[in-house]
Amino acid sequence: MSSDEIVDPTFQHDVSIRRVLLHLVLPLLALVLGILAVVLIGVHSYRTTRAGVQSLTHELLGAVQHYIGQEVSDYIMPAAAGNIIAAGMIGHVPAAVQDRVFYSYGGAMLRSVPQIQSFYLADDEGHFTLITRRKDGKNQERTTLQVRNGHKVFHHDYYTDDGEKIGEADDDAKDYDPRNRPWYQNTENSNEIKWTQPYLFATDKQFVMTSSMRFKAQDGHTLVFATNISLNELSGFLDKIKVGKTGNAIILDSKGRVMAGRHLMQQAEAAGWDPNKMVLNPKTHPVFARGFDHYRVRGVGAHSFALNGKRYVTIASLLPNSSEGWILLLSAPESDFSSFAEQSSRQSLQFAGIIIVFSIVLAGLLIRQVRRSERSDRRLEAQANQISREVSAVQQVAVTPRLFELSNDSLVLTEQLAHMAQARRASIWRFLHDGSAMICEDSYDLKQDTHSGGFEMSRTEMEAFFQAIEEGEAFTVARAASDPRTAQFERLVMREVGTRELSVHPVHNAEGIVGALVLEDASMAEHLVYFVDLVGSITGVRLASIYNRSAEQPDAQSTADAMHQALQQAASLPATRFDNMLMRAPQMGGVSASGIYPAVAVLVITFSDPVVDGSAETAQLLALIDHLATEVQRIALERHLFAVEVAGHRLICMAGCTAEEDPTALIRMADAALTMRETFMAALSASNLEPVFTMGLDYGAAFGGAVGEEPKVFNLWGQTVSVAELMAQGASDAGTIQVTERVYTELRDRYLFRSRGAFFAPHLGLARAYILAARR
């Protein structure tokens, strides 16, 4: 018998045990362990879920409480902050317009803030004004307390929300006095916002609370502004709030009275419309009553308790910005927040994860495609709009009448240039014939939609900028203040409006470089070179007319003959009379005797001593001086100046020499100064002479009168005259008008100025000076 046929019973037993262990015990043990694990996981999950649900319930209630608290604070805020704003507005206006400001503010607030019910305004004399919304909620009622025939009457005016009056009525006010009302009296000796206790209007079914504030008006009277805020809207908001599935919220005061909450009107009716009786009833509101008890014992925060076999969670918090320490109380069953935990499972999470992944991928693809489509549409739309604007701009320029005539302002050039280039400001500058200065023909501010011009820049002020333009190539500087070519231009011109980027395009014509187009903060300038070139070509043709004019020179021979004849006539004249007035018009000034004049405008024009060589040049110069004096007389008569006095190489122009202040004197003098400057510049340029004059202007008190024997001479003295002369002597460049800060303060709304810096004057100290550039 072979050994293979021998059977070992022990061995077979071991195999059977192993098989049983592998096929029965181990699966059973695994099943038991699995069941035990499921039980342990279930118990642990239950405990964890319960703890998590409790924590989450508190967090959710806290989040809802924070949200409701913020909403309630925002609800009440217009009544508190609005009082401060309204008091500031009404308290700083004259008494004659207080009612209009009150109605304007109240009407706007009633239209935009639904919880505001009405506004009161009363003063310490018993005057009373009211604005409220009508019962229909669409129109407004304005009521004033009036006294007619010794009786107080409420006069009502009815307006639509658009401000159209639709009716009026009167009713007896009896002995009504706003000073006896709680909202007026509780502000006594206080300038803070005070609140009244809520009160009910049974007829309108409105639960209203009033905030009031006391302040002083300009006329010294004490005013009280009050705002009535309706708590009905707040209750409606709380009605709509869902705390969990079945929970809700309520607002109480420190004494447990209901301020707002669900079924507010039913509680008011049950309390006989007495707010003091609207307290929590444990029979009708058992959960809130228990929650309020917990708050009174344990303070604010979340509290759990069981009631009628069901667990509830309440959370109490104080409301900020509220009256009398309002308390927000929220309650909800715990089960409202735990049901979601019972519905979660691993499979739902897996499916949710798969769906989320696919949704994210599909959403990403869709968003990518939508964004690409929108980007393409925006590009096409922008291109179409740009083409339309360009065509419109070219057409607007093309149809402008007398476009190439310099006498026509043609403001369309700077306007279209600013619009097309999307520039903050566009301006056209031209060189003087000798290149010593540039004059602004027109400057258009796109933001303010205003034109200005006539001011100038001297080469001595910005030599680098002039040279950059004369090179003939357009250039753009991203930061004008940091570029040596444009730093001075930025300081004198750009800084007043706060622009940074500068684009300069020289203007060419047959004479060479005659000016420049200047664009400030132009975002589209580099894309519209052709349009800028078009405007530059038109500007070059317009400016060509200036350089083609032949300057009229005075005839030296005729001037010499005239001077010779004048000398012969002078020999036969009577003795010299002490009258140094070039023009005097006492009938215009309205004075005939000496006196003190409170507001005199004094313009001093200082001329440099001329250098002449020979009698011919002397005669020519005297003819020029005679021409300038004639022009000064003409301008003085046109502007109704009081007098023009000649003192050596100075002209002293005066206006406003009246006992009563003349409000137009300074304006007339400023206009005369600008006109004289342009006249002098043109005359000197025609004679091929550099500007040899400076001008100074001041405004203030002076004294003067006629002195000497007949014929008497009028003279003017005072600090105003001295400072005006100081302004003329200290002017930075020839041909400029330097003025004091008093002149700048009076005229800055009518004229353009450049800051000059500080100067020192005896008996006056340090003060600021400005350069009068042009009219606005």
Automatic annotation (TrEMBL):
A Gene Ontology BP annotation from the UniProt entry: response to oxygen levels
Protein name: Two component hybrid sensor histidine kinase and transcriptional regulator/adenylate/guanylate cyclase
Superkingdom field: Bacteria
Location of the protein in the cell: Cell membrane
Gene3D superfamilies listed in its UniProt record: 3.30.450.40, Nucleotide cyclase, PAS domain
InterPro entries: A/G_cyclase, dCache_1, GAF, GAF-like_dom_sf, Nucleotide_cyclase, Sensor-like_sf
Chain ranges passing through the membrane: 20-43, 349-367
Organism of derivation: Acetobacter cibinongensis
Every Guanylate cyclase domain range: 604-728
PROSITE patterns the record matches: GUANYLATE_CYCLASE_2 (PS50125)
Topology with respect to the bilayer: Multi-pass membrane protein
Gene Ontology cellular component terms for the protein in this record: guanylate cyclase complex, soluble; plasma membrane
SUPFAM superfamilies: GAF domain-like (SSF55781), Nucleotide cyclase (SSF55073), Sensory domain-like (SSF103190)
GO molecular function: adenylate cyclase activity; guanylate cyclase activity; kinase activity
Primary localization: membrane
UniProt keyword list: Cell membrane, Kinase, Membrane, Transferase, Transmembrane, Transmembrane helix
